[in-house]
Amino acid sequence: MGRYLGPSCRLCRREGVKLFLKGVKCETAKCQIEKRQRNLAPGMHGWRRPRASEYGIRLREKQKVKRYYGIMEKAFMRCFEKAERVKGNTGILLLQLLERRLDNVVYKLNFSPSRKAARMLISHGHVHVNGRKVDISSYSISVGDKISVKKSDKTRKCVKEQLDSNPNFTTQGWLQLDRDQLQATVVALPSRDDIQIPVEEQLVVEFCSR
């Protein structure tokens, strides 16, 4: 499985927006985007951003979505092709498919501080769906699925500490979390309002359809 091993903050600086790749750090003054002198594109010529072409604008929107969810090009295009085959708004369907990935759901439930940490939690077998261990981060959840953590003291303690570290955290309307049981139920599909990434999905569709 391919994965990005470079500095995470570099990706946020390239896109010019917070992608929340480092969990809590992204919400503090340590975030690179918050630092004025570092809120530039990476590289020695980062201080001078050239005017983007029509192609460049669409490319940046696509890269923003891909990096936000932490997936590679091949996996992203598979999601796009699947969204294209379904009747409806392709852009919104694409974002819904990405939002329904298990690693994203685990992150949205605050079981892990970031999507990268969620992928590690899943790949090590600490996450169950409908009572069965699922170690595939790209697994797509459906309405009615129940997501829980492994019934081991070490796992439950780790997830409980993560939940307690952010007591004001609230789950989105399409997820129902039971903090005591460390279990959640998918009660609906995510709507466009639930998808927090600031992106124009139509530009992504135009880029991928070219």
Describe the structure concisely.
The chain is of the alpha+beta class. It is built from eight helices and five strands.
Helix content: 25-40%
| Oligomeric state as shown | single chain
**Which strand order spans the largest sheet, edge to edge or round the barrel?**
2-1-3-5-4
Biggest sheet details: 5 strands, antiparallel
Order of helices and strands: HHHHHHEEEHEEH
Number of helices: 8
Fourth CATH level, the homologous superfamily of the largest domain: RNA-binding S4 domain
Structural class: alpha+beta
In CATH, the architecture of the largest domain is: Roll
What number is the mean pLDDT? 84
State the separation between the terminal residues, measured CA to CA. Answer: 27 Å
Which CATH class of the largest domain? Alpha Beta
The global form is globular
Q: How many strands?
A: 5
> Rg, please?
18 Å
| Total tally of structural domains | 3
Low-confidence residue ranges: none
CATH topological fold name of the largest domain:
Structural Genomics Hypothetical 15.5 Kd Protein In mrcA-pckA Intergenic Region, Chain A
Strand content: 5-15%
